[in-house]
Write a structure and sequence with these properties.
about 450 residues; alpha+beta; Rossmann fold; Porin; eight-stranded antiparallel barrel; 6 helices; about 20% helix; elongated
Length: about 450
């Protein structure tokens, strides 16, 4: 009976503890305590660059639809939620209003508007005692109708990942890209002629990073830890960006072909915008489907960098110690995906008690960028190199090979932050002045560094 009460007490304490700890498991970006104003998309900022129109154009939007008919993918049973938001007309009307070029009128729920006007007329007649009352002003009619919709939502157009595990400690990174496409056309209500048609697309990026540890710390004791984060770009924000871009391009196309006009004093601004637009068309013609987010290469042809490292020698002595080091590199990016790296470093290697020395190292590596058109990309490297013991200069040079994996994030167009791990395999077994066992000396290296891309 006493044991039963003790177990119940332990269960109660555990539940209270987990409930209390739950407050601390918050997302890295925090939790919004209250409602906030919606985010401003990059394409929405483009509206501020537009010149002023001679007068706003009255447009009507009856229905801007999701024409994909797709539902969200689900690994567990059926999912009846749509992949694309259903309020596309509302998003388009907001975009038209923000552009300052169009005066949108209510057409999606025109029946509600007409019913309400009829109620107003009936009420005025009943309570005016037969006296004449002012008529309602006439409804505005649209000179242009805007039609179209989201015509495709392509999932898993690019997927992949990278990972590594050694002695129960490892990490992995996964990514996925989807794509949404929007078509928008302007139709003249007087003639039914299609004045302009534009289309835009936006990729939707999902990323996941995980790290875990699985080790036996004793005969009957197992230690396991795991941490990770997943970032999914909201579909609604991607749709909004694509629609904003379509409205922006529609305005520029209309100005270019004299469908509508700007104020005379805005000519200089129009010329500048047209120059930028023509350059964007040239860049767009170079894009090939299948290259990630279809953007031009963000990284320049040459780069220099440096990193701080932690080195763990796996030699012939039983005790293992971690020592520091530093490396510098020069890169030549001869293609979008591959670059050649030359590096020179200073490494401290040794065991806890028996051996410690300082080495200089030189390497030649071939590096592969998995997502060269993205700010964030995993990468792999492999190459050959050499090492020389600084404390015994007369000693012969030691040759090795190395393979590595890492992640790079561009904080700006010229600066990238890198985290990496490398495995260096020696061609001989006397790095630590001792030859023993069947395996040559080798060491693990972890590092963090900065990469600076030179030029455009």
């Amino acid at each position: 009976m006493k044991l039963f009460k003790t177990n119940r007490l332990l269960v109660l304490i555990s539940l209270v503890t987990l409930q209390s700890c739950g407050v601390f498991f918050t997302p890295p970006a925090g939790i919004e305590a209250s409602s906030v104003i919606g985010e401003v998309t990059p394409t929405e900022k483009d509206f501020k660059k537009l010149p002023k129109p001679q007068e706003p154009i009255v447009v009507g939007v009856y229905k801007f639809r999701d024409q994909t008919g797709q539902y969200k993918a689900s690994n567990v049973g059926a999912n009846w939620s749509t992949a694309v938001p259903q309020g596309l007309t509302t998003i388009l009307i907001k975009s038209l209003e923000d552009s300052k070029w169009f005066a949108p009128i209510e057409r999606e729920n025109i029946g509600n508007l007409l019913n309400e006007r009829q109620i107003i007329r009936t009420t005025r007649q009943e309570y005016s005692n037969g006296q004449s009352t002012d008529n309602l002003p006439p409804l505005l009619f649209a000179g242009i109708l805007l039609e179209g919709g989201v015509i495709s939502y392509d999932t898993n157009i690019l997927t992949g990942g990278a990972g590594a595990r050694y002695f129960g400690i490892g990490g992995s990174s996964e990514y996925r890209q989807d794509r949404i496409t929007v078509y928008l056309r302007a139709v003249s209500t007087s003639s039914g002629k299609i004045l302009k048609t534009v289309y835009t697309s936006k990729t939707i990026l999902s990323q996941s990073i995980n790290a875990s540890m699985f080790r036996y710390v004793d005969v009957e004791r197992l230690m396991e830890a795991e941490v990770g984060i997943t970032n999914n770009e909201p579909v609604q924000m991607a749709v909004t960006e694509a629609i904003n871009k379509a409205v922006y391009l529609m305005i520029l196309e209309g100005i270019k072909d004299d469908v509508w006009a700007t104020k005379n004093e805005e000519k200089a601004k129009v010329d500048l915008l047209m120059k930028e637009y023509n350059q964007e068309i040239i860049e767009s013609n170079k894009r090939v489907a299948g290259k990630g987010d279809w953007d031009t290469n963000r990284r320049s042809r040459y780069a220099i960098g440096g990193s701080f490292t932690l080195n763990s020698l796996k030699g012939d002595y039983p005790d293992i110690a971690t020592h520091t080091g530093a490396t510098g590199n020069f890169k030549y990016l001869f293609s979008d995906y591959f670059n050649l790296e030359l590096s020179y470093g200073y490494q401290n290697l040794g065991s806890e008690r028996y051996f410690k020395s300082q080495f200089t190292s030189g390497e030649v590596n071939l590096e592969y960028l998995m997502l060269p058109f993205n700010n964030f990309t995993p990468y792999f490297s492999a190459g050959v190199g050499s090492m020389r013991d600084m404390e015994t200069p007369l000693r012969k040079m030691q040759f090795k090979s190395q393979v590595g994996v890492g992640l790079e994030y561009l904080v700006s167009k010229q600066v990238g932050i890198r985290g990496f791990g490398k495995y260096h395999m020696g061609f001989n077994d006397d790095w630590d002045d001792m030859i023993s066992g069947k395996r040559n000396d080798h060491f693990l290296q972890y590092g963090i560094g900065i990469q600076i891309y030179l030029g455009k």
